Structures are given as structure tokens and as C-alpha cells.
Amino acid sequence: MMDKANQSTVSEFVLLGLSNSWELQIFFFVVFSLFYVATMLGNSLIVITVTADSHLHSPMYFLLTNLSIIDMSLASFAVPKMITDYLTDHKTISFDGCISQIFFLHLFTGTEIVLLMAMSFDRYIAICEPLRYTSIISPQVCGALVMASWIVGIMHSMSQVIFALLLPFCGPNKIDSFFCDLPVVFQLACVDTYVLGFFMISTSGIIALSCFILLFNSYVIVLVTIKHHSSGGASKALSTCTAHFIVVFMFFGPCIFVYMWPQNSFVIEKILSVFYIIFTPILNPVIYTLRNQEVKAAMKKMKNRFLSFRREIPHSL
Fold it and tell me: Where do the domains of the chain lie, and which CATH numbers do they carry?
């Protein structure tokens, strides 16, 4: 394999994007720019709010803050280039840039998968073992869970990058997508793609499906536990878990489909890629901010503090 890899002659790839229509490209430029700005502002606001308000210094919000950071990273590894590409005629990416996109995509998605499982574990203990919650979910445990998510993400992404670097590319260099990922890149390699498809299924696809099944089962247990309670706290827990599960379903659904069926239509892959690269990162601020009374109250308090500070400035001058 290494000998074949050394025969690679491709130094850059051409990104075909989502459409050749100039009108559609302008439309995508405007829409995706708005989504990207909203994603960065929304997730930044969550990070600032949780950091500034001591009432939100709890395990759940600590994990939520890290999820916001990952979502901002996931939205930034490819979307800015895609947006600027709409303003140029020749959309290319260097071989090293393509490998970097594969690395960061799998780093952030792998990290987010483990972090979502950590958030599920946090809610499971909070609802099913409330008396033991503070002893099980300590600040040290939260820090270890976040660190473990990044370690798993790095290990997973390194395996994908090493695999991609071993592929020989000796001719075709047109990628029918707006960023680089193994399902579209490996089909340009000068080797039999059947083995490559099996590798992807055995790593990304099955891992994502297995994690989703575990998460689904944990939320079923949590919801069954909540069903036996009718208090306001149970209603709040149900709302929180519903929000968590929406994020999990929206994130895992496209990933499982893309990686479990790597030979499917490029059109379907493009649509799903747009979904979990552009739309999913904005779900975090939308779902957690608009549905969570504590976060909204903290944001209102921070806004009032900011307005009060601005009114005091002229007097101090």
C-alpha cells in the first residue's frame, strides 16, 4: 500500500460544490453565511452566559458549554471556505488541505459523539439516581469526561487520516461535494473501493450506530423513570431530556446514513453533509436557549447588567 501511495500524483482537488447554477450559488452564499454567523454568535453567547453566571456552574451546563465549543469548531472547519468558494469560479483545495479537513471533521464529530454520551450519562444519573448525583458527577468526573471525549476524537481522526494518507491518487481529482471526507475522497483512489467501504463501515458507521443505540436506550430508561413522577421537577427533566434527544437524533441520523451506506447517491450525501455540518451546530443554541428557562434568565440578567454598565459610563466621564 505504501508503494502505491508514493505513486500519487494529485496535488489538489477540485470541489464541485452543491450546484453549478450561479443563482443558486448566490442563494447558498447568503443562507449559509447567515447560518454560520448565527451559529457562532449563538454558541458564543451560551459559553459567555454559562461562564459569567455562577448559578449555571453545574455539570450539565459545563458539558453544554463544551458542546457549544465543539459545534463552533465543527461549523468552522469547512463552512468558511465553502462560503468564500461561492465568490470564485475555480474551487480547489490542496491535498494537505483536504487531509486536514478529514482530520478536523472526524476530530470534532468523534469528540461530539462521546460528549453527547457524557451528557446522556449526566441526565441518567440526575434522574435515575438523584441522591447519588453529586457524589458520582463531580467536577473532576466532568473534566475527565470532556478530556476523554477529545482523546477519543483525536484517536479516531488519526486513524482516518493515516488511512487517507495511504491511499494512492493517480488521476481523477474532482470531489462532488463542498468539503473533503472519506466517503467521497476514497472513490478517487486508484484501488478497489470495496475494501475501503468496508473499512469505513467498520469504523465510523458502526461506531456511530452503536453509540446512537446506547444513547437511545439510556433516554428510554430516563423517560420511563420520568413517567412515574408528576412533579414540576419531572416536567423540567422531561423537557431537558427531550431537547438532548432532539440534538442526538439530528446529529447521528445523517452520520449513520452517510457512513453505513458509503455508496449511496452523491445528491443524498450532499444534503446530509449540509445538514450535520451547517444545520446541526445551530441546534445547540436554538434548542437549549429557547427551551431552557435558567439560561434565558441568566441571559436577561447579563443583558440588564450590560445596559446598566453602559448607562453608568457617561456619568463616570
Answer: 2-291 (1.20.1070.10)
Name the pairing type of β-strands 174-175 and 92-94: unpaired
- Angle between helical axes of 139-165 and 59-76 (0-180°, round to 10): 20
Q: Record the cell numbers describing residue 194, joined without a space.
A: 470495496
What radius of gyration, in Å, describes the C-alpha atoms of the chain? 22
* CB neighbourhood size of 143 (10 A): 12
Q: How far is CA 281 from CA 49, 165, 268, 314, in A?
A: 18, 28, 20, 39
DSSP-derived secondary structure letter, 188: G
Question: 58-103, pLDDT tens digit by residue?
Answer: 898 899 899 999 999 999 999 999 999 888 877 889 999 999 999 9
Q: Please give the Cα distance from 241 to 234 (Å, whole number).
A: 10
Q: Is 10 helix (H, G, I), strand (E, B) or coil?
A: coil
pLDDT band at 5 (very low <50, low <70, confident <90, very high): very low
Residues contacting residue 204 through CB under 8 Å, at least 6 positions apart: 106, 156, 160, 182, 255, 259
β-pairing verdict for 92-94 and 12-15: antiparallel
What is the four-CA torsion angle of 191, 195, 197, 201, rounded to 10 degrees? -150
Residue 291 exposed, middle or buried by CB count within 10 Å (0-12, 13-18, 19+): middle
Chain segment 38-63, per-residue pLDDT in tens: 999 999 999 998 898 888 888 988 99
- Cα dihedral 176, 107, 256, 292 sign: negative
